[in-house]
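Per your request, structure below.
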């Protein structure tokens, strides 16, 4: 098929059309405009640089020129340009105040802003030139990162640089990531790759804080072993080369005695070891600890009885000491960063009041938003929290991190979104907490970097295809395949019941269109349209593995790619079964239906193995709640071919009730099991024999029951039906091997009014928890 018919690809087309005159640049520059003719990249190029030119910027510039048509790159000093060079492309790079650069920039404005730069391209003959002037060394480096995106094809074999002028600087001073997740930390090789990636997207901050590094948290007093210290040293150097602040975090809160001079000495020794490696940024996270008890009796004597105010007093005493006696006395050190124990709300407390009143103004305070995983961050919220902590806060954004229960089995590939334009006026910066899968995390981090560089120009719909194109090395077909996969992995859960980004919005839109067309009589048209997208789903994994996409991503996404191919095949086959039945070929339809169901079982049998996360060996979730729901609905239509309304989820019009509700919490009430929302759920009390049931709006012949389990599922349960809600018949016994989406097929031979999930044995010490219970069949008139 032509991928141009896909909205995902259409998004790429929109970016391409918009860039016909001006190439797309990410992050979006503050100012990007035409400046004249494009400059042709000649076989030999002169680079004019001096001792004030950043070494990393110069090296990357030479590399990009060679990758875009320059067979020879000569680096010369200002004033020493050879005479016989007319017609060659000249590139000047260095500080914006260097006389030759200032003159060549002309009226292109140089931002008076740290990390800012000006860039101008002139293709006028005979002396085409590119000028890169940085406010500082980082600005020079970022000018090159913009230049590498300005190369465009010149015929079949050549390259040219778009004739533009750019005046650019970051809106937020701190931009990047915090490796702060629970579970398997990244490998050394993966971290080195991340430093190069951050350089590409103009992110300047990486905070080293993996929860499961024992020397970061549990063994914080102990020095790193020599081999680990050597790795950290290499990582610091790679970060520095990419103008990334390697920020070393040590988290002593679980065991530190705040008043003990020996503990403070050990903490500073830990920081000193990293300072000696070249680290100039440090953080002391005090999150996820108890602050209502002391770790030593001397803290009780020093700060009083444990509590919010006393804990804040002890923490401030430590943090001020580190800021004033370590940070302020070590040349080049950045202000100390800290994560408060109260990091995710807008409530004023004795804890926040103490921090606000006594914490050194230089210390950066981190905040996660109004929840651990915030569904949005607004300017008003940022303004409120700035007042609570007495300073602009530094946001630790827990997206796309997938180390908590609601993310089990998920890659989070939706774009960075729902952070309000204008936050740069209220925040000192944003760092994203990525997934345990570093390469897959690049999709969201690409957006975070774009937003924090220029929040007012950020558009998630524009950024998402650019992020996928980056992973695909610019390959169009691979980019489209990644967008198809990204739609199937679009769900963004919170710690609560409601996800902040929906699952498979594009597939959901197409499925809705399919059923509308089908029910209105255009069945062949409905099948043709959806089958084309189903084939795209089926083919996406092979395309992604075809070589253009970063190898690390294909490894990270391996189980999801395996499952996606099977789910895609099952969808194509199901559509073929519908088409065959519509054409009157029942035997063919029955065979295809059986094949589709077999493919679905194979897809459900795929496991994330070995797991990087603490979830264990779980089923990778792919388009769940959308793709599998379509297959169930299509299956029921085939089973009830001669019954009108056979594909309807009758549960949505029914009434739910249950034997119990966990702690009588309204957010876990039975009505959530048939509200059509995969982000809500019902949960029972803590016993094996609990149940939940749907009273249908009218008697119906039921062909299938679906159960979307949360992590608290059943190892054994039965499906029961009843005509009167008193006398029950067991119609199926299920013993699933994992928590997931169960499809229970029934014979649909008699009309019933009630359908129940009756628990037999729980998987956990909790009760039973179900996101959605579907009942598919045909009402009996």
């Amino acid at each position: 098929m032509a991928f141009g018919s896909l909205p995902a690809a259409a998004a790429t087309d929109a970016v391409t059309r918009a860039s016909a005159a001006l190439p797309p640049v990410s992050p979006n520059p503050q100012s990007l405009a035409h400046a004249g003719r494009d400059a042709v990249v000649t076989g030999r190029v002169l680079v004019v640089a001096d001792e004030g030119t950043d070494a990393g910027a110069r090296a990357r510039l030479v590399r990009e020129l060679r990758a875009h048509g320059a067979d020879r790159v000569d680096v010369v000093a200002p004033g020493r340009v050879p005479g016989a060079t007319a017609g060659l492309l000249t590139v000047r790079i260095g500080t914006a105040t260097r006389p030759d650069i200032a003159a060549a920039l002309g009226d292109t404005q140089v931002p008076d802003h740290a990390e800012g730069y000006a860039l101008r391209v002139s293709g006028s003959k005979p002396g085409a030139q590119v000028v890169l002037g940085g406010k500082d060394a980082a600005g020079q480096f970022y000018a090159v990162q913009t230049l590498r995106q300005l190369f465009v094809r010149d015929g079949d074999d050549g390259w040219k640089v778009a004739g533009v002028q750019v005046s650019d600087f970051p809106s937020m001073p701190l931009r990047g990531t915090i490796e702060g997740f629970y579970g398997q930390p990244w490998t050394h090789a993966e971290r080195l790759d991340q430093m190069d990636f951050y350089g590409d997207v103009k992110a300047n901050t990486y905070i080293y804080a993996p929860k499961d590094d024992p020397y970061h948290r549990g063994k914080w007093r102990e020095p790193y072993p020599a081999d680990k210290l050597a790795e950290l040293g290499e990582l610091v150097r790679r970060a520095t080369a990419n103008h990334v602040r390697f920020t070393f975090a040590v988290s002593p809160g679980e065991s530190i005695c705040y008043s003990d001079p020996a503990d403070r000495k050990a903490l500073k020794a830990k920081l000193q070891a990293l300072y000696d490696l070249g680290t100039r940024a440090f953080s002391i996270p005090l999150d996820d600890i108890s602050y209502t008890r002391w770790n030593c009796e001397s803290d009780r004597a020093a700060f009083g009885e444990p509590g919010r105010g006393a804990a804040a007093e002890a923490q401030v005493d430590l943090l001020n000491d580190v800021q004033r006696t370590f940070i302020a006395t070590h040349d080049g050190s950045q202000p100390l960063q800290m994560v408060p124990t109260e990091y995710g709300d807008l409530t004023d407390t004795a804890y926040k009041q103490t921090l606000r009143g006594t914490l050194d103004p230089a210390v950066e305070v981190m905040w996660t938003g109004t929840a651990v995983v915030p569904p949005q961050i607004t300017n008003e919220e940022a303004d409120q929290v700035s007042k609570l902590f007495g300073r602009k806060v530094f946001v630790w954004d827990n997206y796309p991190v997938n180390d908590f229960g609601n993310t089990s089995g998920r890659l989070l590939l939706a774009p960075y979104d729902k952070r309000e334009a204008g936050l740069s006026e209220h925040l000192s910066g944003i760092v994203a907490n990525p997934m345990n899968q570093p390469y897959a995390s690049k999709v969201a981090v690409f957006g975070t970097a774009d937003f924090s560089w220029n929040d007012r120009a950020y558009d998630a719909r524009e950024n998402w295809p650019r992020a996928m194109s980056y992973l695909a090395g610019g390959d169009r077909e691979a980019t489209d395949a990644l967008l198809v996969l990204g739609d199937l992995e679009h769900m963004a859960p919170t710690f609560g019941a409601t996800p902040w980004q929906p699952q498979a919005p594009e597939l959901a839109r197409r499925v809705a269109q399919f059923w509308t067309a089908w029910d209105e009589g255009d069945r062949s048209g409905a099948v043709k349209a959806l089958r084309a997208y189903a084939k795209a789903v089926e083919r996406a994994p092979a395309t992604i593995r075809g070589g253009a996409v970063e190898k690390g991503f294909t490894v990270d996404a391996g189980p999801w790619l395996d499952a996606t191919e099977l789910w895609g095949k099952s969808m194509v086959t199901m559509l073929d079964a519908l088409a065959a039945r519509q054409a009157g070929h029942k035997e063919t339809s029955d065979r295809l239906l059986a094949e589709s169901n077999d493919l679905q079982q194979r897809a459900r049998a795929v496991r994330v193995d070995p797991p990087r996360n603490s979830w264990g060996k779980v089923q990778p979730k792919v388009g769940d709640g959308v793709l599998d729901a379509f297959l169930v609905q299509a299956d029921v239509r085939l089973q009830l071919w001669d019954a009108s309304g056979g594909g309807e989820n009758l549960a949505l019009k029914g009434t739910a009730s249950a034997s119990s509700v966990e702690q009588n919490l309204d957010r876990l009430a039975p009505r959530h099991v048939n509200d059509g929302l995969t982000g809500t759920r019902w949960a029972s009390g803590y016993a094996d024999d609990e149940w939940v049931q749907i009273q249908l709006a009218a008697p119906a012949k039921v062909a299938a029951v679906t159960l979307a389990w949360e992590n608290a599922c059943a190892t054994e349960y039965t499906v029961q039906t009843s005509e009167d809600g008193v006398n029950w018949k067991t119609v199926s016994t299920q013993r699933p091997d994992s928590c997931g989406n169960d499809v229970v097929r029934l014979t649909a031979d008699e009309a019933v009014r009630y359908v129940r999930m009756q628990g037999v044995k729980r998987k956990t010490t909790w009760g039973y928890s179900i996101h959605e219970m579907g009942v598919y069949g045909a009402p009996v008139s």
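The longest strand covers residues 691-709.

Regards,
D.
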